[in-house]
Amino acid sequence: MSATPPPPPPQQPYGGAAQLSPADEKLWATLVQVGGILFSWIPALIGYLVLKDRGPFIRAHTATALNFQITIFIAYVVGGILSIVVVGIFIILAAWVLDIVFSIIAAVKANQGEFYTYPIAIRFVS
User: Fold this and answer.
1) Which of 53, 77, 64, 41 minimizes the C-alpha distance to 110?
2) What residues contact residue 5 under an 8 Å CB cut-off, 6+ apart?
3) Gap between the Cα atoms of 105 and 118, Å rounded
4) Contact of 1 with 64, CB cutoff 8 Å
5) Tens of pLDDT, residues 13-45
6) Farthest-apart Cα atoms in the chain, separation
7) How far is the CA of 61 from the CAs of 3, 41, 52, 101, in angstroms?
8) DSSP per-residue string spanning 27-56
9) Taking the model in full, what pTM does it have?
């Protein structure tokens, strides 16, 4: 009798996204949320495009972060246009404070493994 070798273990096909562990999902969700404070919508967009198929937790956090950062960016643009009038400066200041406060709250929730929805985000990406 000839011994046949055991079949190889199943592998992800090329281009297939492997699922992240829960600890990795929490780490990346936290980094995407904090990245929005420093780099606006860019970390949320990159995180959404790269990590959205890696698990439901990371998809939810990157989508909500992207929606919120786009909303804040729109507030910055409107504030910039209205800075011709004095009210634009207050809009920019309010958007900046809201960005910092809500991004920190979302990062803490992501680090705890909880889902978070921003209270004032326009939903562009689901």
Assistant:
1) 64
2) none
3) 9
4) no
5) 555 567 888 889 999 999 999 999 999 999 999
6) 89
7) 50, 13, 9, 16
8) HHHHHHHHHHHHHTTHHHHHHHHHHTTS-H
9) 0.83
Distance, in Å, from the CA atom of 95 to the CA atom of 112, rounded to the nearest integer, reads 25
Residue keyed to tokens 């909500």: 64
Question: Would you put residue 40 in left (φ > 0), alpha (ψ -120 to 50) or beta?
Answer: left
pLDDT in tens, 72-112: 999 999 999 999 999 999 999 999 999 999 999 999 999 99
Q: Is 96 exposed, middle or buried (0-12, 13-18, 19+ CB in 10 A)?
A: middle
Contact 109, 60 (CB under 8 A): no
Name the token pair of 95.
């958007």
